[in-house]
């Protein structure tokens, strides 16, 4: 059983990645993101997930500097956006992100969306960054099984991570078991379905039973499914509360009851049809 916020999963290349972190999607650059990230780090978080698209890498970098925590204790992720896909443009996008973050290296670099036809070239750029020691792990985001199979058919290095929309209304069982078989760690974005799951009666009943919040029940379910999770919040109380999930365990029956909420329903775009801005 996972015991602390610093507990980590070991990726297939031997790198340790915390099971739990802070996501900063839609968090404004400047004081909002700086305060959220500093609050998280001060309260024991060690993993921070951003992306070029979020427009807040500079603030994340500033918060890392101000946090006083040694760089090597932190696990920092960012992502290459669709319009930067392709070999040379990905290498450039990486430098831009690294400069904005003010870092010498990244812990994890992800392809944000599969898009149409460039992700193999983009992956070659990630493999180069990895071999050059610029990033400790590389992975993908929003890849379905067929994208992963296609990518791995020509990849030298298998992705270490696949970060996808994952919550009790979208349990992605086939994708999860595929990734587990392949040694690819699944990671959840939007684990609370942007708050939509917090009023679910089954989740609320379990929250009463375990004397936890609805969010804590869902986030604990992620961890017990061996899925890394990165809930987003800018409120100090919520940042602390979300992470307070290491002192209880859901029973097998309760895990199954949550699994039963699945509707294969997304709050974000479908990776097969999402090409917005891709050719811009």
Automatic annotation (TrEMBL):
Belongs to the aldo/keto reductase family. The keyword Lipoprotein does not apply. It comes from Ectobacillus funiculus. This is Aldo/keto reductase. SUPFAM superfamilies: NAD(P)-linked oxidoreductase (SSF51430). Residues 260-280 are annotated as: Disordered. PROSITE patterns: ALDOKETO_REDUCTASE_1 (PS00798), ALDOKETO_REDUCTASE_2 (PS00062), ALDOKETO_REDUCTASE_3 (PS00063). The keyword NADP applies. Pfam families: Aldo_ket_red (PF00248). Keywords: NADP, Oxidoreductase. CDD domains: AKR_AKR5G1-3 (cd19157). Residues 30-262 form the NADP-dependent oxidoreductase domain. InterPro entries: AKR (IPR020471), AKR5G (IPR044500), Aldo/ket_reductase_CS (IPR018170), NAD(P)_OxRdtase_dom_sf (IPR036812), NADP_OxRdtase_dom (IPR023210).
